Amino acid sequence: MDWILNPFRSLSGLWSGPLLALMGALIAYGGWAWRGHTQAMVGSAVEARGTVVRLVPQQTSEGNTLFYAEVEFPTGEGEVVRFRDSTGANPPAYRVGDTVRVLYDPRAPQAAVIDSWMLWLPSTALIALGGLFMFAGGMAFLQGILTLLGLGGLLGALAFLVLRRKSSRP
User: Fold this and answer.
1) pLDDT digits 0-9 by tens, 117-141
2) Which of 33, 110, 157, 167 has a CA-to-CA distance to 47 between 20 and 30 Å?
3) How far apart are CA 140 and CA 24, in angstroms?
């Protein structure tokens, strides 16, 4: 009995495929928007050289300890600003005394960030996840189309045989 129902289950890709692809497109769009925001921030930021002055340990809800770099840097006006990086790591990504490239907005230097590949990770992950969803949705839809064509071909062949038998009778 399963062999009869299996093609009809495959037809669910006709509605679930486009839905999955739409979800993927929305996720990828969110990733592109995030990337655009990051690109605009990097494009308008002022660069400075900072020094890691401290590693701040912080417990996660899972009981792990992440270390966040606390960085000091001088602004173009000579003000010394200290900030904590938003990304923690274990083992620590930096050591006390390391020199790092800092990006900051002159109007809000306390919102500075360390210029690293981690700035681009969230948007890249969302774009990749969205692309994966779109690909899976396209494959599900294609499977539904091929199943539909297969069923149509089978039904068409049966109809041809039935009509041919009727026309060959006297």
Assistant:
1) 888 999 999 999 999 999 999 998 8
2) 33
3) 13
